[in-house]
Amino acid sequence: MPTAKRDGTLMIGIVSKPSTLEKLEILSADAQYDLACACSCNRDEHRRRGGEGKWIYPVTLPNGGSSTLFKTLLSNACSSDCKYCPLRADVDVRRCSLGPDEAANLFLNYHRRREVFGLFLSSGVCGSADATMDKLNATAHILRTKHAFRGYIHLKIIPGASDAAIEQAVSLADAVSLNIETPGEKHLATLSSKKEYVRDIIEPMKLISRLTAAGSKHERTKQTTQFIVGAAGESDAEIVRYMWALYDRLSMHRIYFSAYQRGLGDDSISPEQAELESPTDGFVREHRLYQVDFLFRKYGFAESDIVFERDGSLSLAVDPKEAWARRHPERFPIDVNRASRTELLRVPGLGPVTVRRILQRRKNARLRHIEDIGKVGRRLLKASDYLTF
Prior knowledge:
With 389 residues, the chain is α/β, with parallel strands linked by helices.
């Protein structure tokens, strides 16, 4: 607004709009709350903040190597009311948006410098789900057609998006994610009044599953999702039941978990949960759910194998695999020289790599001591209680 100097001349006050890099700093930082592209219990694979405000997400590649994703929101403006989200409509934060061409060019600048290998693109809900999907899909379309980019693109599916918008995203991306957020309609209703669980989340997930099924045109496109843990008063048993269904019925590629952190969202939610859990307990709980996820995907466990406390929670003191072993003492000890791969994978302290080593070494010689398996650390010491030689 113009103001007058003492000599009577006008002084114009100018409020500048954020530059593209300033917008990137804001939007890439806000993108940290969605983990459905990469997360790990391995310290080397944790997300970290890089230069210019961007968050870098290490990802394990299919060939065993690792690289990083460029991750940002197209906009942090959002018309939704998710109580756990620090970007919900009623929160006073600095809002900004990137256009599809702007976002594509930003990503390519990093990609050409070989700082990132792929793109994860998400957004707040700008107006409607389909209006937001139009911008997300347009960015991917620009990269695929105008710039002939054939690398990795992960697109976020906005809850409530139309079938046509979802089909276009699946056709453009290597992976898509629609966050399930809670195990069931009742829990979601405590967090948002604008989302319908079945219509906006479950039915679109089923559509993605059909579009990416084995033998389909887009079978190489992966589907992931994320639970917000501890925001709606849900139990671990409820989450695990939904996890199993997602893998068993919808062939979900990966499931991620984000412990709700009080102070980021609406602190009025789930007061009973806040009284029961310290922040540390919340992160341990998240870690236990990741361990269950690995048991499902890598160890051959089923939902019925997971042991819960009386209140439906996973033990914070004992990992889920050891809890199962303690529940089944009749299964142990097992003979390390005769046990099958499946039996060995049930032994606390033994992972797929160690089991593979055991199977290889016993082809050439009988294993007589725990040291014959490898260097004895904490995990092998635990395993020794369940093995005979």
